Amino acid sequence: MLSLALALVIAQTPADPALAAASREDRDGWIVVHLKGSPHTVGYQQGALLAPEIHETRETLAALLGERGGHDWRWYRETTHRLFWDKLEPEYRREIEGIADGVRAKGGSEDADDILAMNAHIEVSGYYLPMIQARQRGEPPKSDAPMACSAFVATGSATRDGKVVMGHNFWWGYLTGERWQVLLDIKPEKGHRVVMDSLPGLIHSGTDWAMNDAGILLCETTISDFTGFDEGGLPEFQRMRKAAQYSENLDDAARIFQTGNNGGYANTWLMADINTGEIGKLELGLKNVTFERLKDGYFVGSNFPSNPKLIAEEARTYRPEGNICELRRLRWIKFLDGTKGQVDAELGKQFLADTWNEKTQKNDGQGGALCGKGLLGGAVNAKVTTADMARKLSFWARMGVPDGSAFVAQRLRGTMPEVKALTHLRDMPGQKWMLFEAPK
Predict the structure, then answer these.
(1) Which residue among 131, 172, 289, 312 sits deepest, i.e. has the most Cβ atoms within 10 Å of its Cβ?
(2) 8 Å CB contact between 81 and 113
(3) Which segments cross the bilayer (predicted)?
(4) Domain 150-437, CATH
(5) Which residues pair with 170 in a beta bridge?
(6) CA dihedral over 17, 20, 26, 32, signed as positive or negative
(7) Where in the chain is the domain with CATH 3.60.60.20?
(8) How far apart are CA 240 and CA 206, in angstroms?
(9) Using DSSP, how many helices (H) and how many strands (E) does the chain show?
């Protein structure tokens, strides 16, 4: 009801001069938001334009994290403030404060600590919390790293025009994954213009898919079974946003990701420089980091760790045999080896919507499918771009299951009535591919 009240307040509020350079459009399941100005202004614009969604997302996260990890939202607010607030660069503190100010200007109640906790919830719940819980029990840490996302980046002889093609679909639990429906277009006061998909209230992507007007493309898949967290490091969400905003080449991106690395949300980052046609793969562990680059060929990601030393030291429970990450890697290799010299945006869409399971040899969307469809979660959006599109900050995006099928909330609610957080679950209708084009 509060979300509805916020929406009515926004509809009835006189024109806000701070929103003159900003806009919102709801299209094909996405919320497309254009933001421009100083850090506080950019934040305020997002908070004001997405106030109902930010409030509803915060309530959903609080319910889910409270049931799953045994700590309430107050704990997340206090913990993220202690871990991260003083480490944030001033512009990102101001943007977070701006988001909170924008929400409250439209009748909401969220403050800066709420917004900070939303931005940090993945690395705190999935990396920091398992570490301290294991420490309290006197046990080795157990990984809570999500097996999230399938992605590829190709260039040179792998693609139809010899230029970069990149694609990514986001795997997540349906409860929160269906809310990753925001396309942020940010023209900041400093650095480069950034376009990324995101969750309401975030200053980074979280999925992660981003590009900037310097021609740098970024996406990732999580390193599954990863353990490790440095409480003294810089938050992953800041490093991701900074890499997207300030990188002018692949070396910049790799350096920013590694500077102050805290091990939170440890990912294999796929990246590209459309100016040089070069692609990169940064496997970013806490102790072990590997950076590869190519001007001809491809890299893929489906949550599998590659570096043997990283597996031995930081992903000790990872076993490739029958693992869905390895099944998806096999599917990627079959696709990309079998379509050498043909890869373009249309093929990229087909890859990301593929439901073939290498284990069952069926189109069931289970386990080893690139477009996974599990009971609790799976692929919930997809994006693909080419060098020519990215030069215009443009890409294809499909909100919802990448093959266009619908998710019916009652299927999950009916099987797990004891999970109270599922009262926030909603249907996710099938959507078509939408062409996002950033205005000049």
Answers:
(1) 172
(2) yes
(3) none
(4) 3.60.60.20
(5) 381
(6) negative
(7) 150-437
(8) 9
(9) 15, 15
In terms of Cβ atoms closer than 10 Å to its own Cβ (0-12, 13-18, 19+), residue 240 is buried
Query: For the domain bounded by 2-18+39-137, which CATH number is listed?
Result: 1.10.439
Long-range contacts of 239-243 (CB under 8 A, 24+ apart): 240/204, 240/205, 240/208, 240/210, 241/92, 241/194, 241/203, 241/204, 241/205, 242/89, 242/92, 243/218
Looking at residue 14, the DSSP 8-state letter turns out to be: P
Up-side HSE of residue 42: CA atoms within 13 Å toward CB? 24
Structure confidence by residue, pLDDT tens digits, 358-416: 889 999 998 789 999 988 899 999 999 999 999 999 999 999 999 999 999 988 888 88
- Around Cβ 178, how many Cβ atoms within 10 Å? 24
The first and second tokens of residue 135, run together, are 């420490």
For the chain, where do the domains classified as CATH 1.10.439 start and end?
Answer: 2-18+39-137
Instruction: Read off the pTM.
Output: 0.95
Encode 377-407: b = buried (16+ Cβ within 10 Å), e = exposed. Answer: bbbbbbbbbbbebbeebbbbbbbbbbbebeb
Per-residue confidence at 10, pLDDT binned at 50, 70, 90? low
